[in-house]
Amino acid sequence: MGSEPIPARRVRVLVVGGGRLGGALALSLSARGWPVSVLSRTEVGRRRVQPLGLKPATPRHLAQARVALLCVPDQAVPEVARELARTLGPGAALVHCAGALSLKALGRPRGRPLGSFHPLCAVSDPRDSLAGHAVALSTRSRALKAVLRRMAEDLRLQVLEVPEGRRAAYHAGAVLSAGCAAALLSVAVEALGHAGIPEDQALQALLSLMRSTLRGVETRGVVRGLTGPIVRGDASVVAAHLAALPPEPAEVYRLLSQRALRLAGSRLSPDARADLTKLLNER
User: Fold this and answer.
1) What is the pTM of this model?
2) Nearest-angstrom CA–CA distance, 15 and 25
3) d(Cα 225, Cα 217) in Å, to the nearest integer?
4) Which fold has domain 177-281?
């Protein structure tokens, strides 16, 4: 790389980090014929990698690797990139797997292509499958892009190309659909708690409800998958909800209902839209 472009084939990959994402990428790539070794920076990481049957990286692996995937905490990326720039073979690419970081986090190592490869998947165990999810790619190297796209294709990941200047907006959207979805669920569980329903029962009931909503959205799209009193134009039910909830859940409900009202569009009569707009903007 650098002077020699990366061919769009299964090149030798060094996965740096033996955590959940590093383990999942290493296992998935290995299963699809990529030569993979794993560099764990801590003893805890090395103990995690061994039961997975992954190949621990040796100095020879570092010298032969063509792509290094940095699966380390965001704050560690600059330091790890500096270390690898000194120890990898000539021209090997540095690719971080952090959603929030730009390529600048990798520094400016001379002669090394830089990239990012961020799977949009909440990985809770290294054995989790990545297939069917998306991955955000960014690189200025055409040769490295070809390899990362081949990697995504083999892992059955939908490719999103994220402009460097808009990475924060991309990552915010990803966080809203993942961590914030869990936070929203906690608000819903709290609401059921005010109805006297135990937390464990509330969680199980609401998880099933959320899954049915996601199935509807997946089948019919966001707008047609929208359900509830907003779509029905039922201002009296919405008013009762706002009155029943404590301040914080009520505010979350109000903001999301305002968004739902915009999504409902022409499905509502002018009178129903006016009533809901007035109700949701009252304080």
Assistant:
1) 0.86
2) 8
3) 4
4) N-(1-d-carboxylethyl)-l-norvaline Dehydrogenase; domain 2 (1.10.1040)
